[in-house]
Amino acid sequence: GAGVSQSPSNKVTEKGKDVELRCDPISGHTALYWYRQRLGQGLEFLIYFQGNSAPDKSGLPSDRFSAERTGESVSTLTIQRTQQEDSAVYLCASSPRTAGGDEQYFGPGTRLTVT
Amino acid sequence: QKEVEQNSGPLSVPEGAIASLNCTYSDRGSQSFFWYRQYSGKSPELIMSIYSNGDKEDGRFTAQLNKASQYVSLLIRDSQPSDSATYLCAVNGGGSNYKLTFGKGTLLTVNP
Fold first, then answer.
1. Which residues in chain B have their CB less than 8 angstroms from residue A42's CB?
2. Along chain B (112 residues), what's the average pLDDT of each consecutive run of 10 residues?
3. Cβ contact, residue pair B98, A48, below 8 Å
4. Given this model, what pLDDT does residue B110 score?
5. Minimum distance, in Å, between the CA of residue A56 and any CA atom of chain B
6. CA atoms within 13 Å, Cβ hemisphere of A94
7. What is the CA radius of gyration of chain A?
8. DSSP string, B16-68
9. What is the rounded CA–CA span in Å between residue A48 and residue A29?
10. CA torsion, points A27, B94, A33, A100, in degrees to nearest 10?
11. Best CA proximity match to B46, nearest among A94, A52, A53, A77
């Protein structure tokens, strides 16, 4: 079946502008995660959605970052007033979160460059 | 602060050899362990998951878990140049702690 999709694949924006990144999870996956990966660095957890529960926003680095998800479908990550340190690849993952396991499957990512 | 430690490498092995990748974690309550492969410029790809002590084999890959030692490893048999990538170890926090903590990865190079 189709994997996790993300759009856009690349985004170049000027410092101070707002950007919106989109993630479409694997159909039937109840859990959705956003991560950030700076160049040459590890993955940094940002936010987690599970069904209709309140999201875990504990990884968001500042109040300029926000995310939404409607039900078990598409999620958007919004970064307001972008800064150069926001330049990174933003990765979305989804998981079935079943009793058998909670493997996360990643999308191709959105490469954000803030100039 | 939950931590996952990996040797950054690079680990270089000849084609056909066994590559051994190691990972230690700090949270003794962790219950789920994963290995991801990440090619340069690409997103992580899940290659193995392991939940119980012991070995789990899938093709040329074997994951080994020792919860008492807080240690998980990945063996790649008959290494191929196409296995050259960064391998990420990921651990969840146990129970309802769904968040994965990733190690910084080990760069593996398989020389033809």
1. 88, 102-105
2. 86 97 93 95 95 96 97 98 96 74 94 95
3. yes
4. 97
5. 9
6. 22
7. 14
8. TSPEEEEEEES-TT---EEEEEE-TTS--EEEEEE-SSEEEEETTEEEEEETT
9. 13
10. -10
11. A94
